[in-house]
């Protein structure tokens, strides 16, 4: 329809603006933390009361 002009504008905004880049790094760190917590929960023993 618009020969990809809207996509190019969105990609340029996401690549050049600092806020989406910060959010991208935060999302990656959160994903890794989630994996580590899941692995820890799967290998730890239940607490005894």
Give a written overview of the molecule.
With 49 residues, the chain is mainly alpha-helical. The protein starts with a helix and ends in a 6-residue tail after the last helix. 0% of the residues are buried. The longest helix has 26 residues, at 18-43. The mean pLDDT is 89. It is rod-shaped and about 65 Å long. It contains 2 helices and no strands. Helices cover 78% and strands 0% of the residues. It has helices at residues 5-16, 18-43.
Got a strand count?
0
Q: What would you call the quaternary organization?
A: single chain
Mean pLDDT over the full residue set? 89
**H-E string:** HH
Task: Summarize the biggest pleated sheet.
Answer: none
Note the total helix count.
Answer: 2
Radius of gyration equals 20 Å
Please state the overall shape, judged from the principal axes of the Cα atoms: rod-shaped
Distance between the termini: 65 Å
Estimate the strand proportion. Answer: under 5%
Helix content: over 70%
Poorly predicted runs are: none
Summed up:
This protein is an all-alpha fold and 49 residues long. The protein has two helices and no strands. It is rod-shaped.
Short descriptors:
mainly alpha; 2 helices; 0% strand; single chain; 78% helix
């Amino acid at each position: 329809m618009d020969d990809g002009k809207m996509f190019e504008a969105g990609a340029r905004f996401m690549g050049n603006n600092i806020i989406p880049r910060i959010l991208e790094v935060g999302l990656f760190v959160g994903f890794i933390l989630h994996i580590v917590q899941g692995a820890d929960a799967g290998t730890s023993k239940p607490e005894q009361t």
